[in-house]
Amino acid sequence: MHTRMKTISKLTSDVGATMIEREIPEIGDDDILVKTLAVSVCGTDVHIYEYNRWAKSRIRLPQIMGHELAGQVVKLGKNVTSVNLGDIVSAETHIVCGECEFCKSGNAHICINTSILGVDRDGAFSEYVAIPAKNAWINNPDIDPAYLCVQEPLGNAIHTVLSGATQGKSFAIVGCGPIGVMAVDVAKAVGASKVFAIDLNDYRLDLAKKLGADVCLNPKTQDVISEVLNQTDGLGVDVVCEMSGSGIAMNQAFKYLKKGGRMSILGLPDHPFTIDVANDIVFKGVTVNGITGRRIMETWQQGKELIDAGKLHLETAVTHILPFEDFKQAFDLMISGNCGKIVLRVGEKEER
Ligand SMILES: [Zn+2]
Ligand SMILES: [Zn+2]
Questions:
Q1: ∠185-109-317 over CA atoms, to 5°?
Q2: Distance 48 CA to ligand 2 centre (A)
Q3: Mean pLDDT, residues 190-206 taken together
Q4: Does residue 8 register a pLDDT over 80?
Q5: Which ligand approaches the C-alpha of residue 44 most closely?
Q6: pLDDT at residue 2 above 90?
Q7: How far is the CA of 128 from the centre of ligand 2 (A)?
Q8: What ranges in 41-109 are assigned the alpha helix state H?
């Protein structure tokens, strides 16, 4: 094996990223080295690429970007028994301590010592990446890695949709970026009665429609509150999956959330905003829950079940598959908003 690898790295505080060679990382006794086959581009990667306020405060330069991956295990640390050489794996990107109160109580997704791949340490936009073996998720090797790498954001969608009852429930998916459109797909797969998709971008609404959304609404041209109420006997939807991070959208969503309903929030507002707690939460008896990451590894198992059962349409949610070298085009597309999930192909599987 050679000692150098191509990476997409963030080197300076300017907008953009650089394809640059770095040393292939050494691995610890509990780690594995993964030869990357495919990666997908996340909104978080765009924040790092643009180097926004959050990225400035969090990212230590230089850093290899990226965290959503599928790859082949090519080296094992000496303590590793849970993964074999040649396995095709994806990675749970939250590296947790296993020792805090939350890890010990089965809530590792809120571990107080979480370190995130591609955020707090070098990531996966790279020909090789080192990860702890306990973070590896072993995949069905017959599935194209271009669809396996998106299981990490798919897990965000699954965690949000499945954080309460789903069967026969009406859903509004607010914000139809890549995770939002996957949430539409998941909601339909797990028995939602009716799915409203809401976004300001018609490309994304069109994609949501292809993935099974029953009603697509654009707040630019439609009165979303009255449309949803009209189509739910005046009662509103049972579940809102908030994926836009917009305070305006969330306040509207509280108005069309049914009494006794559930508001599951994944989207991250970039500043605090006001909510009418008395009228929109207390008197309506609604449940509001915050969704972070994926339940480790319960959400991954749910994703595997849905994929293996052929219930999802990842080939539709992934709208672009590009060569690794064309990363700038991928970021331009992400910034334009006219895309679903974008995948970069990195390396070739080795026959073993
Ligand atoms: Zn991500
Ligand atoms: Zn912990």
A1: 20
A2: 25
A3: 98
A4: yes
A5: 1
A6: no
A7: 26
A8: 43-50, 53-58, 101-104
- Both 50 and 124 in one domain: the answer is yes
Residue 81 known to be catalytic: no
The domain in which residue 198 lies consists of 164-290
Looking at the structure, tell me whether residues 228 and 94 fall in a common domain. no
Q: How far is CA 149 from CA 1, 7, 97, 179, in A?
A: 24, 17, 24, 13
Instruction: Give the pair of three-digit tokens for residue 95.
Output: 């590296």
Annotated active-site residue 18? The verdict is no
Per-residue pLDDT tens for 91-141? 999 999 999 999 999 999 999 999 999 999 999 999 999 999 999 999 999
**Averaged confidence pLDDT in the chain:** 97
User: Which residue, 117, 145, 139, 165, is CA-closest to 36?
Assistant: 145
Measured in angstroms, how far is the CA atom of residue 112 from the centroid of ligand 2?
Answer: 5
| C-alpha 40 to ligand 1 mean position (Å) | 8
Point out the catalytic residue in the list 2, 3, 18, 47. 47
For residue 352, pLDDT over 80 is answered with: no
Taking the CA of 125 as reference, the closest ligand is 1
* pTM (two decimals): 0.98
Give percent helix, percent strand, percent coil of the chain, each to the nearest 5.
Answer: 30, 25, 40
One domain for residues 307 and 284: no
Instruction: Check 3, 7, 12, 44 and give the catalytic one.
Output: 44
**Helix residue spans in the chain (DSSP H):** 43-50, 53-58, 101-104, 145-148, 151-161, 178-189, 202-210, 224-230, 247-256, 277, 298-308, 314-317, 327-336
| Predicted pLDDT of residue 1 | 66
Distance 101 CA to ligand 2 centre (A): 7
Alpha-carbon distance 93 to 338, whole Å? 26
Domain count for the chain, please give it: 2
